[in-house]
Amino acid sequence: MKQDAFIQRLRQALGSLPKRDVDEIAADYREYIGDALSAGRAEEDVIAALGDPEKLARELKAQANFRQWEERRSFGNLMRVVGSIAGLGLLHLILLVPFLLYMLVLTTGYVFFGALTVAGLVTLVAFGSHYVFGTPVPGVLPFGGGAAQVGAAGAAGTADGKGAAAGKDAQGGKIAKDSKSASAAAADALNDAKELRVDGERYVLDLHDGSRVSIVTRKGVIDARKQDGKLSVDATGDGARALLATGSDGTFNIARADVIALDLKSASGDQMTVANTGASMPGVNVPGIAGGNVQMTPDGRGGMNLSVTNGENAVSIVGGRITVDNGKQHVSVAAPTGFALGGIAFGYGLAMLPIGIVGLLVCIWLTRVTWRALVRYVRRRIDAVSAKLERERVG
Fold first, then answer.
1. Do residue 149 and residue 227 come from a single domain?
2. Which of 271, 291, 311 is the C-terminal boundary of a domain?
3. Same-domain status, 36 and 153
4. Most buried among 18, 162, 236, 282, using CB within 10 Å?
5. Residues 249 and 166 in one domain
6. Looking at beta carbons, which pairs linking 276-283 to residues 24 or more positions away fall under 8 Å?
7. Is residue 357 included in any domain, yes or no?
8. Does residue 170 sit in the same domain as residue 71?
9. Dihedral sign, CA of 254, 257, 263, 264?
10. Does the residue 34 lie in any domain?
């Protein structure tokens, strides 16, 4: 092979390098060949000693890529050097396959553990804000006092033909006084009744004409009724009458703690019963509404049990179990014992966050170890290539 043909093939094989580097390498080899010819060596022997121009170009490209990586150390430049070394022989190419598989696993680890970390953070923020600040949890229905409040409000409004408006007010939270307290939520469910409402720790009654209320207190029984615009109050037991306080607007009130049971009957025939079961919140029973019955009772653990019946149809929420029965079919759905749906999600979020963080830290450590090992391997291979080229030039 002649000098010009060798240089031409070398230029073509070095086509991926910048033109300035290609010109510099070509000039260097022309000078080397010229010096050898001046020393009396045959041109064919000099070209044959240099070897295959394509293989020589691969070695030169590996050197050039390594110099580029030393000038600007980045993962992309390092992988370019690794690719150049892999092109030097079959053995290097075979060694590249497990390395690429390892990099794929490492990348998958970054994606997986990164997703776990983000999901854990989002879950903790969403549910943590609910538990700490009382804000609603996205996508989770509020069972307990709040749900009982809406059911009672919507049902009570049906009695006087204003159920839709009452239901909207209840769902909009307009009757809620203290959303942070299950006791207040249960008591606020009474506010939709026109003649009975809760004001702080007291029941306030504004009886309509023809209505009657019977109150069983710790000191006796109080019976009050309103007839022809006049309010009459009868009390049995020492000190029972003194428990009542009269308001300036014609209403009267009594402390909730003094009430054992309260039974209100309106002139239209509607009836509401409130019972102090000894828990921190009252039980509420609203019979005779649209032919059905709504009952709310405390479960003794700070929550509420709700049941709605109308003939053979019944819906109840008791102890984390929802039961629907229409007389022919019975469906019951129970949450896992001891866990609410929000609590389960919060627990998963609490578990995902540390797992994701630990996984990311392990991936970062593996990346550092891989980087150092890869740099050492690349340096050894480039040193071997440089030594080989130097020996060929000297020879």
1. yes
2. 291
3. no
4. 282
5. yes
6. 280/182, 280/183, 281/145, 281/182, 281/183, 281/185, 281/186, 281/187, 282/186, 282/187, 282/256
7. no
8. no
9. positive
10. yes
Joined tokens for residue 63: 């050197």
Number of domain units in the chain: 2
Classify residue 264 by burial, with Cβ atoms within 10 Å: 0-12, 13-18, 19+.
buried
Identify the weakest region by mean pLDDT among 129-133, 325-329, 373-377. Answer: 129-133
- Per-residue pLDDT tens digits for 211-240: 888 888 888 888 888 888 888 888 887 788
Of 65, 80, 58, the C-alpha closest to 10 is 58
Please name the helix (run of DSSP H) or strand (run of DSSP E) that holds residue 323, with its range, or none. strand 321-325
DSSP code per residue over 267-321:
TTS-EEEEE--SSSS-EEEEEEETTEEEEEEE-SSS-EEEEEEETTEEEEEETTE
For residue 226, the Cα-to-chain-centroid distance in whole angstroms is 55
294, 151 contact by CB (below 8 A)? yes
**Pair 75, 151 in one domain:** no
Q: Is residue 384 part of a domain?
A: yes
Per-residue model confidence as pLDDT tens digits over 61-98: 887 878 778 778 787 777 777 777 776 665 566 777 88
Ramachandran angles phi, psi of 292, nearest 5°: -125, -165
Domain boundary at 291, 319, 349, which?
291
Position 104 in a domain: no
Q: Which two tokens mark 69?
A: 């990586």
Rounded Cα distance between 90 and 251, Å, is 98
The 230-236 sheet, strands edge to edge:
230-236, 220-227, 212-217, 259-265, 271-275, 283-289, 292-298, 304-310, 313-318, 321-325, 330-334
pTM for the predicted model, two decimal places: 0.42
Spatial distance between the Cα atoms of 153 and 192, rounded to a whole number of angstroms: 5
Range of the domain at 272: 145-291
Residues 388 and 284 in one domain: no
What size, in residues, is the chain? Answer: 395
Q: What residue has token string 């963080």?
A: 357
**Same-domain check for residues 75 and 153:** no
Could you tell me the two tokens for 202?
Answer: 């007291």
